[in-house]
TrEMBL record:
Signal peptide (residue range): 1-25
Alphabetized UniProt keyword annotations: Signal
Domain of life: Bacteria
Official protein name in the record: DUF4142 domain-containing protein
Length: 177
């Protein structure tokens, strides 16, 4: 009977130990990939992880205080992207380089989106719209081979500039869109 008296405290200690370890693991990085790093480097990684976690928490607190929900942010971004895709399609259809430049002005790719690249994008757009997906793919490959990346022209299954507009990305489901 004496053993039963010790069983409850031992079980509680086990729960606290396991629970604490789980909580600790959720707030610290898995250091196994960094086993070959020096102790100072591992300490720096752990500090950086903590800083990042604290910043995420603070950022979420700011958003929560302002009443900004993740859903509202997602909807706003999706709407913006959709409007951008529509405007880019219109610029390509109209062969309007000035409008295109204005739309991509804040893009990290802006400096690479020359008039020559734009001309190829217009041609890709025309080929896609006409159903010549093989021709469009060949031009997309030319751009990619020339070092023009990040346009949604064949990476990450993108279907256009900013992963959704017509005329740039691969037609993975062969629906012509």
């Amino acid at each position: 009977m004496i053993k039963k008296h010790y069983a409850i405290p031992v079980a509680l200690l086990a729960l606290v130990t396991v629970g604490g370890a789980t909580a600790y693991a959720a707030t610290t990085p898995n250091m196994a990939p960094f086993a070959s790093f020096s102790a100072a480097q591992q300490t720096a990684i752990e500090q950086a992880f903590t800083i990042r976690q604290d910043a995420r928490t603070k950022a979420q607190d700011v958003l929560d205080a302002a009443g900004v929900t993740p859903g509202a942010m997602r909807t706003a971004m999706n709407t913006y992207r959709s409007n951008q895709r529509t405007a880019i399609d219109a610029a390509l259809t109209a062969n309007d380089y000035a409008a295109f430049q204005a739309l991509v002005a804040n893009s990290p790719m802006a400096s690479e989106l020359t008039q020559d690249v734009f001309a190829k994008l217009v041609e890709i757009h025309k080929l896609e719209v006409s159903g010549d997906h093989a021709g469009a793919a060949a031009l997309r490959k030319e751009l990619t081979d020339a070092g023009i990346h990040g346009l949604g022209i064949g990476h990450m299954g993108g279907r256009g500039m900013m992963m959704g507009g017509h005329g740039f990305g691969p037609d993975n489901d062969n629906d012509g869109a």
